[in-house]
Amino acid sequence: MVEEENEVIKKKTVIRKKPVAKKKTIRKKTSPSKRAAAANSRQALSDRLKQDLDASKEALKHVKDAAGEELKLAKKAAQDEIAVLKSQLNAALKREKKLVKISEKKIHKILATGEKWEKKQLLNIKKATEKAIRNIKKNKSKKS
Fold this sequence. Notes:
By secondary structure, the protein is mainly α. It has two helices and no strands.
């Protein structure tokens, strides 16, 4: 039994630290001169920020106006380019129409010439067949 008692684990005692009492901070009153200086510096900072804001607004206005002018110039240049391209297109269309008319005239002349040639050839073929028929008739009449 003695052994059993030795086997029992002894618990360590935990020592807890007591919290140290915090010092109470006492708010000191600022002197009126420090308060006035702080107010003045805040006012100066506020004024400076307002001036910066106004300057930024003015700069943005100038940039916007300049961009508008550039846009107008670009638009005008684009319109001029469109006008030039349209005139070139119209000139090309006119040339194309003239070429089509010339082609149609040539086609009509070729067709007319072809028809004349065809008629001439048909006449030649008729004459040749008539001549051949006469020769055949002559040869038959000579043989009979």
